[in-house]
What does this fold into?
Amino acid sequence: MNKQQSLKDLAREYVGDRGLAADAGNSVMSISINMDDSTAAHLMKRALRYEDYIRTIKFPKNSGLADEIMRASDPSLIAQFDDLVDRMNAELKKETPTEEKNAMLQQLLDDFWKLMG
It folds into this structure.
């Protein structure tokens, strides 16, 4: 089983029979990542906690991004990442126009990349 398939199986565990979809019209979250399964599991669990909200997060291939998060010498990095996920999901819950919501989510993603240096 390839990594992408194992991520799909993990996602199904958290969102039931809805499965993992690549577009925002299917009531699930899609994460396209290239990392080990334990790191993917951590990120998928965080993201899919809010299974009613639909977003696609694409980490650059071979970026080592998740490995950096999980292996960082500063343990607060994971907490900072979790805080950003929480802030993003709080924005998704708000009743705001799509353009405003997308702008705020983009700002939070920008904050995330700044966090990662």
Strands lie at 30-32, 56-58. The first strand starts at residue 30 and ends at 32.
